[in-house]
Amino acid sequence: MILPDTWWGWLLDYVIVFASGGLLCALAQILIIRTRLTPARILVLFLIAGIIMQTLGIYEPLSAVLRSGIAVPITGFGASLAKGAIETALSDGPLGAFAGGLIQTAYGVGIAVAASYVVSVVFKPKSK
Amino acid sequence: MTDNAERNARYGKYVEWISPKTDYTHSLVKAFVAGGLTCVTGEIARNLLGMIPGVTDEQAAVFASVLLVVAAIFMTGLGVYDAIARHGGAGSFLPITGFANAMSSAAMEFRAEGLITGTAVKMFSVVGPVVVNGVVWSAAAGVLRYIVALIWGTI
Questions:
Q1: Can you tell me the ipTM of this complex?
Q2: Which end of chain A has fewer CB atoms < 10 Å from its terminal CB, N or C?
């Protein structure tokens, strides 16, 4: 946390998270209304935006301020992928670029796959 | 004939009046609030997990997103997430919870076609593009930064 460790510092931290996360989602909503882009395309766009920001080195300083506001939207997933790919490429050589992203995001993806599998066995889909 | 045209014009106006307005600002505000609240939930989880001795802020962020993912998948199973998504719009699919919801709802929807040919095949039918683009573009990012480091002479 870069804000002072006082009650208003904490509050401001949450206000920034709410505002930045909300703005990103509002931007995606504008894209839905104004263009013919489907949700899947918008997800990929924001994902690539996160990867580009990480590659250029502007994601880390941004996420130090916005924290979960930029890390919880799909931009954070893209940034994690790129972070892992870059770090592994620099430490293990260029082939590491193909493994690093998956290693970095393996917790989330692995648990999401397992949990989705379990849920599909346990729950019946609600009729719409 | 003119009578008919006039009636058509009147009917057109009536249709315009009665059909639900795609309320632009309203949906923007709802997306903003839904997205903002999801991020705040993640931030609360991250700060609480960060208080555990020996857990770094970076690890806390990973655990927090795992928590969000599991919660979203469980809520999808209960049918709660769909109710939120109906209002949240982009605010409910852009955060990582939307990614989890897309996976689990596809898995559930095609469960009837079997665990292997249904659930396992269709699980990535929505989020597949995200994973594929993520792997390809991040690999490109890694190779690019490797080449830059080579030229810069830092490796």
A1: 0.91
A2: C
Ordered by start, the domain boundaries in chain B are: 25-123, 128-155
The verdict on B12 touching A (C-beta cutoff 8 Å) is: no
Where along chain A do its domains lie?
7-122
A2 touches chain B (CB under 8 A): no
Q: Which of residues 31-90 of A touch B (CB under 8 A)?
A: 31-33, 39-44, 46-48, 51-52, 54-55, 67-69, 71-74, 76-78, 81-82, 84-86, 88-90
CA distance A64 to chain B (A): 11
User: A73 has which bridge partners?
Assistant: B95
Q: What is the length of chain A?
A: 128
Tokens of A63: 């996420």
pLDDT tens for chain A, 128 residues long, are 567 778 888 899 999 999 999 999 999 999 998 898 999 999 999 999 999 999 999 999 999 999 999 999 999 999 999 999 999 999 999 999 999 999 999 999 999 999 999 999 998 876 54
Q: In B89-127, where does DSSP find H-type helix? A: 90-93, 96-109, 121-122
The answer to whether the CB of B62 falls within 8 A of the CB of A45 is: no
- Using the Cβ of B36 and the Cβ atoms of chain A, whether some distance falls under 8 Å is answered with yes
- CA proximity to A96, closest of B153, B132, B148, B146: B146
- What does the block give as tokens for A115? 């949990």
pTM exceeding 0.90: no
